[in-house]
């Protein structure tokens, strides 16, 4: 079978997982089961038939609307499915059908769920980040580019750096500037990609967050109280390190003259 056709498999499987991730994004913050009941329209309550629940395709065929009441479905649904499919395919291209691909796809899936929950509700559920720390440590025993010591140092560095920043900010400003969810998220990220990944993640997240923050100030005014969640930037930085981290590090040392 031609290689391009083989890539259809991880894409389809990734899209299917993406459909489940949408369920997690919607139900976890509400404290609802992610297994039962099945998916239904939030407007009319009609259960969604299996043929209307095909990832990506059903949204396009139904033009983003419920078959029964014609209420619009959020564009987030196909977006999450496409993102999940693309990352699954990218991981397969990089590492093939391997344990490494499976482990990092679980990691990426967790980051996708955290990103969309944090964007909407400004929270990072402990039910994802906290179990992710020991899971990342366990994964270090099967990942070729990681070992258990890197994982431990990464988790401690990730949580420790942001905790120190949060404590220092509170001491100076007398108000909370960094949420505990961000601390736990970076600890989870460190457990999966090590201390070097933590440093690169924090650098990229801070840079991109500053750019977006400045843009928001220009749009809404410098006195705006609009809060920008940091979790999505941490997730984006971790994904950048995961896929192009070695090239970013090489580029940095090249331009810096080291």
Would you kindly provide a written description of the structure presented here, covering whatever features stand out?
The chain starts with a helix and ends with a helix. The chain has nine helices and no strands. The model has no long low-confidence stretch (mean pLDDT 90). It has helices spanning 3-6, 8-27, 57-61, 76-95, 99-121, 126-139, 148-173, 180-220, 231-256. Helix content is 69%, strand content 0%. By secondary structure, it is mostly helical. The chain folds into two domains: 1-93, no CATH class; 98-258.
What's the helix and strand layout?
Blueprint: H1 3-6, H2 8-27, H3 57-61, H4 76-95, H5 99-121, H6 126-139, H7 148-173, H8 180-220, H9 231-256
Please give the alpha-carbon distance between the first and last residues. 46 Å
Tally of helical segments = 9
User: What's the average pLDDT?
Assistant: 90
User: Percent of residues in helical segments?
Assistant: 55-70%
Radius of gyration, whole Å: 20 Å
Structural class: mainly alpha
Please tell me what the overall shape is: globular
This entry's quaternary arrangement is: single chain
SS elements, strand count: 0
Q: How many structural domains are formed by the residues? A: 2
Helix and strand sequence: HHHHHHHHH
Q: How does the major sheet shape up?
A: none
SS strand fraction: under 5%
**Spans of at least 5 consecutive residues with low confidence:** none
């Amino acid at each position: 079978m031609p290689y391009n056709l083989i890539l259809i498999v991880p894409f389809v499987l990734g899209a299917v997982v993406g459909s489940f991730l949408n369920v997690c994004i919607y139900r976890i913050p509400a404290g609802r089961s992610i297994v039962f009941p099945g998916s239904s329209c939030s407007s009319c309550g009609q259960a969604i038939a299996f043929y209307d629940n095909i990832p990506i395709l059903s949204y396009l065929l139904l033009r983003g609307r419920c078959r029964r009441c014609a209420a619009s479905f959020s564009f987030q649904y196909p977006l999450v499915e496409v993102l999940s499919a693309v990352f699954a395919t990218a991981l397969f291209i990089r590492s093939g059908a391997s344990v490494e691909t499976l482990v990092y796809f679980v990691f990426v899936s967790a980051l996708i769920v955290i990103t969309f929950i944090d964007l909407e509700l400004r929270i990072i559920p402990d039910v994802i980040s906290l179990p992710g720390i020991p899971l990342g440590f366990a994964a270090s025993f099967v990942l070729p580019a990681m070992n258990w010591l890197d994982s431990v140092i990464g988790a401690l560095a990730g949580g420790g750096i942001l905790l120190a920043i949060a404590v220092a900010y509170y001491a100076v400003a007398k108000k909370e500037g960094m949420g505990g969810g961000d601390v736990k998220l970076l600890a989870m990220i460190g457990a999966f990609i090590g201390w070097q990944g933590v440093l690169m993640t924090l650098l990229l997240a801070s840079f991109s967050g500053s750019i977006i923050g400045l843009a928001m100030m220009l749009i809404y005014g410098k006195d705006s109280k609009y809060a920008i969640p940091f979790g999505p930037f941490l997730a984006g930085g971790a994904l950048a390190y995961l896929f192009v981290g070695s090239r970013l590090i090489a580029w940095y040392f090249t331009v810096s003259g080291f």
